[in-house]
Amino acid sequence: MTTYRKIHGRAIKSVSSNLSAPSAEGQIWFNTTDNKFRSAVTLEAWSAGANTIVAKQRPGATGTQTAGLACGGFPAPPISPGAVTSTEEYNGTGWSSGGNLNTARGNTQLIGTQTAAAFIGKGSPLTPYAGTTELYNGTAWTTNPNSANDAYNYRSGCGTTSAGLITGGNYPPTNRAAGNEHFDGTSFSEGGDLPQKQSSNGQAGTQTAAINSFGSTNNPASGNSGDADNAISLEYDGSSWTAGPNGRGVVDLVGYSMGAGTQTDALFAGAPSTNSCKYDGTTFTVGPALAVAQDSCGQSQGPAGAGWIAHGSPVPSVGSRTQEFNKSANVITAAAWAAGGSLNTTRRNVAGAGIQTSALAFGGESPKTGKTELYNGTSWSEVADLNTARNTLGGTGTSTAAIAFGGEVPGGPSNATETWDGSSWTNSPNSLNTPVRSNMGFGTTASAINMGGFYPSPTRNATVEEWGGTSWTTVTSLPTATVNAAGFGIETAGVCAGGNVGSETGNTYEWGGSSWTTGGTMNTARSSVTGGTGTATAGLVSGGSVPGATALVEGYDGTSWSSRPSLGTARMSGAGLGPSSTQTAGLVAGGYAGPPGDTNVTEEFTGETTSLNVKDLTQS
């Protein structure tokens, strides 16, 4: 009798709880707690990723799920106001700004990696067709002295900057083209021509082993005009093309389709439908459906089993959307904001402290209030008020040990300092040396920083004071006088992000315990951010004024900022969390949501999570 041990070389293990590590994929075990055989099963699915910074369609795209690149493209409609130069980099969690293209364009092909890419060709109703080629080094674009031989757009491509393949394309009035070019990192040479004229096809693989399918051809195929859906696939061996099966006969992918992976393991997506399609080197099969259709998007060119698509049409509804594809034994739950319990008192310009499951909101307006509320992860309850009612104040700490300082009182900026012990506020005999409003802070009740603010109104100042547990001492000033910024971290490693310096800014300053250094610039300049969350190397800022309330959220890794899922309610000047909070468990409460006014809405942020896809095994 054949046994599991004879087949696999090991016996089925018995465990009291299910395996959870990714290495359990494909294994079978017996759970002795509930007396069931179980296994970790591979699944394929799309999930939501963080929004891009700029909404657009028809960009160039390449890279992997953890090191992606997207550049150029068009706002809506695609012919006006013309192409854009923006570049964005993806790290698997969010998007950050890269170097701008020298020549604005879209409708053409990007190949390579995040740190070594080539963007080839251009052409639209507002820009002349050309073979313009730019190279990206992970920081900046340079124009390659040698342009592509064929001045087309809507080209397909794959490969690297030293061994690239650029295929087909479009050039009125001949419509589509059969040309094929190789790129060696410097110059272009002619490859084997396609057997038909085509454009907007999906392509995956390498210069010597590529698969091309979907898109459009001329009708008739031998003519120079007309429009028909491509009815064949083509495989390239480095010199010639061989016709293969009809991918569109299996899955209806039309329009500006894209491809990722290899010649024997490819994924195609990006059409007016939510369809996706897989290719194994011989056969096309139906892939998992996207949650939302993204026509005219960009697609990664790394492994087919771990990719993404981003941007797309229509703009703006899906122009900033990202969706990730994964083939693994893990169930991926996308990062997202969810509704929490509402504040009892609707207000803006409110301070916050604590963590997501034990938070504090205090002060605010309108009118000026000292009301304090405690959050238990589900609902808010009113506790003891501040002794001095105020708004636009600084605050930090935990739900049982917080500090409130500065702010606006009826007479103007305040220097009042109060500490919270979990049940009541106590006035400190030692106030701020400089009274301020619209100030910011970070740290704990034992060691905190107050920075910036207005004093005297409406003068912005750069003053920074350090709280030592009993009194304030003036320390090194901010590099720029700033009001209404976000603060997060601790006294020896904190961050001042954004704010208003006469206009909204994306400045980031890092505090090391004695001095300030300049950090990475935020992707979106903003002030009146809805609190700060996390640490100096894993921070989160949410909402703010750009000007006007925004729902945009960004994360900071100690070097650069990248996008995160947006808030459900755009707002500014709400309560955030304290130094013990984490970037993957955020909270915002209250704030000004634009007309008709203030809000009491609370939202909770949960970062992306993964769990093993465990299934029961039964006899059939």
Layout of secondary structure:
Blueprint: H1 4-8, E1 13-15, E2 28-31, E3 36-40, E4 43-49, E5 60-63, E6 68-71, E7 87-90, E8 95-97, E9 109-112, E10 117-124, E11 127-136, E12 141-143, E13 156-159, E14 164-167, E15 180-183, E16 188-190, E17 198-199, E18 202-206, E19 209-213, E20 216-217, E21 228-229, E22 233-236, E23 241-244, E24 258-262, E25 265-269, E26 276-279, E27 284-286, E28 298-299, E29 306-310, E30 322-328, E31 330-333, E32 336-339, E33 351-355, E34 358-362, E35 372-375, E36 380-383, E37 394-397, E38 402-405, E39 408-409, E40 412-413, E41 417-420, E42 425-427, E43 440-443, E44 448-451, E45 464-467, E46 472-475, E47 486-490, E48 493-497, E49 508-511, E50 516-518, E51 532-535, E52 538-542, E53 553-556, E54 561-564, E55 585-589, E56 602-606, E57 609-612, E58 614-616
Parallel strand pairs: 1-2
Antiparallel strand pairs: 2-3, 3-58, 4-30, 5-6, 6-7, 7-8, 9-10, 10-11, 11-12, 13-14, 14-15, 15-16, 17-20, 18-19, 19-22, 20-21, 22-23, 24-25, 25-26, 26-27, 28-29, 29-30, 31-57, 32-56, 33-34, 34-35, 35-36, 37-38, 38-41, 39-40, 41-42, 43-44, 44-45, 45-46, 47-48, 48-49, 49-50, 51-52, 52-53, 53-54, ...
